[in-house]
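Researcher: Structure for this, please.
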Amino acid sequence: MSKSKWFITGASGGLGLALSQKVLAAGHPLVAAVRRPEAMQQLATQYPQLLQVEQVDVTDRQQVQAVAARHQDAEVVVNNAGGAVIGAMEELSEADIQQQLTLNLLAPIQLTRAFLPSMRARRSGTFIHISSIGGRVAFAGGALYHAAKFGLEGFAESVSQEVAEFGIRTLIIEPGSIKSDFVANIRWTEETEAYRDAAVGQLRRWIQQHGDDNTSGDPQKMADAIYRASQLQAPPLRTALGVDAFEVLQGGYGRALEALQAQREIAQSVALPGKSGFVPQ
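Model: Predicted structure, token format:
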């Protein structure tokens, strides 16, 4: 039985590595797009016939286009590479802003654009976008990370409606905390006095002091859940993973619905008589 070829960015650590291990163990050919090929040496030795490692900086559009051109037969493309810069919005440099938007939003967009034509021509394929609970709910200190992840979810949801009729499936994965190097790899802004004791400073110190101890997501179990979802004929558009993801998203959705319902009267009061508005079907 033939196995689908996978393409995973950020495959050398955390959830990306766990998913790579799962995919390879299931017998699928895998292209691991990573910045540090040496980090994949153990898996390359274990799966020499299945694993191909590509050195790619996903923030470089030309590199993304070139690697995608070499693997147009990939049937499952996973936008996993990402990372966070945490601190008050005023503390972010222009370089921080560009890096967060490029890594967490523009890179997945470019990768999707690079693989979409071949999938459309075959009338089959799957895009898996690794978002975050931070793609639906925002916290102080992560303004640009949230801007990128909210944007990724809007992009993925819109494109999913454009390509579904071509047999292309879209999965948006919303993990909570993951037992990985994510917290260790957070880049912190240089703290300013104005925000030291405010909401941003309090969150900064909580993450630094308690973040690792309270991390709840098992990357292997998350990888298993993502793989199972990828094998469904009609997977849900969004999948929340983690006890914290479920709790935070449930609370966020509940508060948002309550706030919206309270605005019914004012929303309806501004309508032109007899007009239903723009409501796409």
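Researcher: Any notable elements?
Model: The two ends are 39 Å apart (CA to CA). The longest strand covers residues 168-175.
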